[in-house]
Write a structure and sequence with these properties.
Layout lengths: L44 H19 L9 H12 L3 E7 L1 E16 L3 E4 L5 E6 L6 E2 L4 E5 L2 H34 L7 H34 L1 E3 L4 E3 L9 E2 L8 E4 L4 E8 L3 H9 L5 E5 L6 E10 L9 E8 L11 E18 L4 E2 L4 E6 L5 E11 L3 E6 L6 E5 L10 E5 L8 H19 L1
Parallel strand pairs: 1-21
Antiparallel strand pairs: 1-20, 2-11, 2-15, 3-10, 4-6, 4-9, 5-8, 6-7, 8-10, 11-14, 12-13, 12-15, 13-14, 15-19, 16-17, 17-18, 17-20, 18-19
Helix pairs in contact: 3-4
């Protein structure tokens, strides 16, 4: 089979040939026509305008107030308009005139005025103790007994020796008187009389020595009965009954620490010393308060007792001692405390709560509420501050109302709804509606 040939057009003559159009050459010297202008570029300002419109819409979408739930769109729009003009609720307080203290603060530790380590003064066996660990004892209370029998036997021995030597002395005195009578008749020589006088004095010395030995043994017998030398609290027991105690023991039997009164030794900078020292020398009583480690809780109040006699050159500080009654055992020996000494008390100054004072990098200021319930910002100069109040030397007058809370929502001229410290909180519309609902529910139940 032969391959098929491709079909040819029915008629080649039916097609009309198209000749290409070739522009006629321009004569020499003639000017060429100008090229067509390039297409105009679109300007950027319509795009900038469009972006500004979109950004404004987005900002409005973010900052718009949330519509209240359960209300229609029309009511929500009215509520948003009301909230835009609503007053911001703030807590406030009035500036008052009062007194404020200038304090000097230092780190310190509770130090007992007296601490006694009770040791034995005689050697012997510890027979019995009459205290419990941690007991409060008074001066003169019996603490322990050491075996007194060796000393009682020694006392009997010395007393017998004294009687013997006393009899020898009495006999020597009789012989002396006899010699003094015989010397007048030359019956004895002067040498015999002188010797007898010396014998009497020797016997007197022996008798006196015996009496001293007896007194020493009596003292040892007293030392066998151990009593409390001071009033205070007993620590842990160091020796148990039955042990042999010696005067050379370094640990002792027990330790008694005085707790009432008690002292706090604290340090202040040497630059603060002249004012404190001058007031103490003038006879002023300077109060001292002891605070806990965080300087939040006051533990006890006392007075400054004494100032150390030298400044520590390594730290540039000086030690002070304050005494506290400690009647309720607020302070414990070696406890760490912060001591605050009242150096001066300013009277009749303008005070505001410390929470009202705001600060930035360049100034201190407060928001003052004006009579029309709007606020204004005032720059203030500060004086002394304590835990609660701050002295205002300028910028605020007595009776001015200053804002305490909600300051971050305020600006110059903002309208506020003030709640003064100590005044009852105003009833809000939500609270009133809740009360009305409760009353209606109660009335409905009653009608049923």
């Amino acid at each position: 089979m032969e391959p098929q040939r491709p079909a040819t057009p029915a008629s080649v003559e039916s097609r009309t040939p198209v000749a290409p159009v070739i522009p006629a050459p321009s004569p020499p010297g003639a000017q060429r026509p100008a090229p067509p202008p390039p297409p105009r570029r679109h300007r950027l300002w319509p795009w900038i305008l469009l972006l500004a419109i979109l950004g404004g819409g987005f900002y409005y979408w973010i900052k718009r107030p949330a519509p209240p739930s359960g209300e229609s769109a029309a009511k929500g729009g009215g509520r948003r308009a009301q909230e835009a003009n609503a007053a911001a609720p703030v807590d406030a307080a009035k500036a008052v005139k009062g007194n404020i203290g200038v304090y000097v603060t230092g780190l310190g530790a509770v130090t007992p005025i007296y601490t006694v380590t009770v040791k034995t003064q005689v050697n012997g066996q510890l027979m019995q103790i009459y205290y419990k660990e941690g007991d409060m004892v008074h001066k003169g209370d019996t603490l322990a007994d050491i075996d007194p029998r060796p000393y009682q036997a020694q006392l009997t021995q010395y007393e017998g020796q004294l009687l013997r030597d006393q009899a020898t002395l009495d006999n020597a005195r009789i012989d002396q008187k006899r010699y003094e009578t015989l010397i007048k008749t030359d019956a004895v020589t002067e040498q015999q009389l002188a010797t007898q006088i010396a014998t009497v004095k020797s016997d007197e010395g022996i008798v006196k020595n015996d009496q001293g030995l007896i007194d020493a043994v009596k003292v040892n017998l007293i030392y066998c009965h151990i009593t409390a030398p001071i009033t205070g609290r007993i620590g842990l027991r160091l020796v148990d009954p039955g042990n042999i105690v010696q005067t050379s023991d370094s640990t002792g039997l027990l330790v008694i620490t005085q707790l009432q009164p008690i002292s706090v030794i604290f340090t202040i900078a040497e630059d603060q010393l002249p004012t404190v020292y001058a007031k103490q020398r003038a006879g002023q009583t300077l109060p001292v308060d002891a605070f806990d480690r965080d300087m939040k809780k006051k533990l006890a109040s006392g007075t400054l007792t004494t100032i150390d006699n030298e400044i520590d050159q390594t730290t540039g500080t000086v030690k002070l001692r304050a005494t506290f009654d400690n009647s309720k055992d607020e302070l414990f020996p070696n406890q760490f405390v912060n001591a605050r000494l009242l150096e001066q008390e300013k009277r009749g100054v303008v005070l505001v709560p410390s929470a009202a004072v705001q600060r930035n990098s360049s100034m201190a200021y407060v928001y003052v509420v004006k009579p029309d319930s709007t606020v204004t910002l005032r720059t203030v100069k500060l004086g002394t501050s304590d835990d609660n109040n701050t002295e205002i030397t300028s910028g605020v007058n007595e009776g001015d109302v200053v804002v305490l809370t909600g300051v971050d929502k305020l600006q110059e001229g903002s309208k506020v709804e003030v709640h003064l410290e100590g005044a009852p909180a105003p009833a809000t519309p939500a609270a009133n509606s809740a009360k009305n609902q409760t009353r209606s529910n109660k009335s409905g139940k009653t009608s049923k």
